[in-house]
């Protein structure tokens, strides 16, 4: 029996491409013939080194050993190792994941889930390994922002994935550029499929995550102490989607440089919204503005967002590379005597759009 190290996924599930005639967008469709138990025995996983860190835990490059009588394979995977939770809550999270796992089968715009395990007492969600995310792509660009045409294209991919999971009753609750992965065809796929919702109601051993449900810079008002300000709804993901799109357009994270307490005050107490670049197509500007309504009942659903992005993609809006200037407000924090902080706001320039 031979051994083989494989950097890509096994033959199942398999992928094929279709052209969405309405928006002229190439989509990858995944067909799966394997809906086995998602549990992975811990001894079949080997953590290699950490490749990322987030509010819910660390991401590791790992090796998944799969074998039968006919083959013996080692697949490179991404292992999301969650922060410790109380032992009596682990079973609840595993049961929630089992339901989520089967909902994600066949969803093209979601990173393939290999399964789940427990290593060193911590839950590990095992996912397909992608080379990079939209956040990584932005970090490699000179001004950190993505062209409008690509933002609309990625937005369509993202909205399709979120909408499909919504149709199956699942929330994402942690949309942000570093959680939107890019596949080999430069299509955006969801790299976080609802970890916050898996942990809703769980008790962390050493974290304040129980007080909020997401990453602060991208959280809707109702995600702060959700048991108090809820309910969580599909429109909650519209806020996170809007934050992700604005960051792609401007190259600046919403509430960049602000401590968590200040973000809470801005979003929950003062009802402030992230800055939307001027000069966008009016339909895109309006739908993004709607994403940031304090009352979730006034926000657009993902199907509405998808419709707008598809329509404007077909119109061929582009940014004039000679006239583009950064619009988003950039905050700089200067510490005085270790106690006083002064926020300096840089000059706001406009983004010029041309239709070609």
From TrEMBL:
The keyword NADP does not apply. The keyword Nucleus does not apply. PROSITE patterns: PROTEIN_KINASE_DOM (PS50011). Residues 45-315 form the Protein kinase domain. It holds the Pfam family PK_Tyr_Ser-Thr. Coiled coil: none annotated. Gene3D superfamilies: Phosphorylase Kinase, domain 1, Transferase(Phosphotransferase) domain 1. One of its GO terms (molecular function) is protein kinase activity. Signal peptide: none annotated. The chain crosses the membrane at residues 333-354. Keywords: Membrane, Transmembrane, Transmembrane helix. This is Protein kinase domain-containing protein. It comes from Glycine max (Soybean). The gene is LOC100784274.
């Amino acid at each position: 029996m031979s051994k083989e190290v494989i950097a890509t996924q096994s033959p199942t599930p398999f992928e094929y491409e279709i052209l969405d005639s309405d928006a002229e967008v190439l989509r990858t469709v995944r067909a799966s013939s394997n809906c086995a138990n998602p549990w992975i025995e811990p001894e079949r996983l080997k953590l290699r080194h950490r490749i990322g860190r987030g509010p819910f835990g660390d991401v590791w490059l790992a090796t998944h050993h799969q074998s039968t009588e006919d083959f013996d394979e080692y697949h490179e995977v991404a292992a999301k190792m969650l922060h410790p939770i109380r032992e009596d809550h682990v079973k609840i999270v595993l049961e929630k994941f089992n339901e989520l796992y089967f909902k994600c089968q066949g969803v093209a715009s979601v990173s393939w889930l290999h399964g789940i395990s427990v290593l060193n007492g911590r839950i590990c969600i095992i996912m397909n390994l992608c080379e990079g995310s939209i956040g990584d792509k932005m970090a490699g660009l000179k001004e950190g922002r993505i062209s409008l045409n690509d933002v609309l294209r990625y937005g369509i991919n993202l909205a399709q994935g979120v909408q499909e999971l919504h149709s199956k009753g699942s929330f994402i609750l942690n949309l942000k550029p570093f959680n939107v992965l890019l596949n080999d065809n430069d299509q955006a796929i969801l790299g976080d499929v609802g970890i916050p919702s898996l942990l809703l109601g769980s008790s962390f051993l050493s974290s304040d995550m129980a007080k909020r449900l997401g990453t602060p810079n991208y959280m809707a008002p109702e995600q702060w102490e959700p048991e108090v300000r809820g309910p969580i709804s599909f429109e909650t993901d519209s806020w996170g989607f809007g934050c992700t799109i604005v960051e792609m357009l401007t190259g600046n994270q919403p509430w960049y440089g602000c401590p968590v307490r200040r973000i809470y005050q801005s979003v929950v107490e003062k009802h402030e919204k992230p800055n939307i670049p001027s000069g966008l197509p009016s339909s895109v500007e309006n739908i993004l503005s709607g994403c940031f309504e304090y009352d979730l009942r006034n926000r657009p659903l993902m199907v509405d967002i998808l419709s707008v992005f598809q329509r404007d993609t077909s119109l061929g809006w582009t940014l004039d590379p000679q006239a583009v200037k950064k619009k988003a407000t950039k905050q700089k924090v200067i510490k005085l005597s270790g106690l006083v902080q002064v926020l300096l706001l840089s000059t706001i320039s406009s983004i010029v759009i041309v239709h070609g």
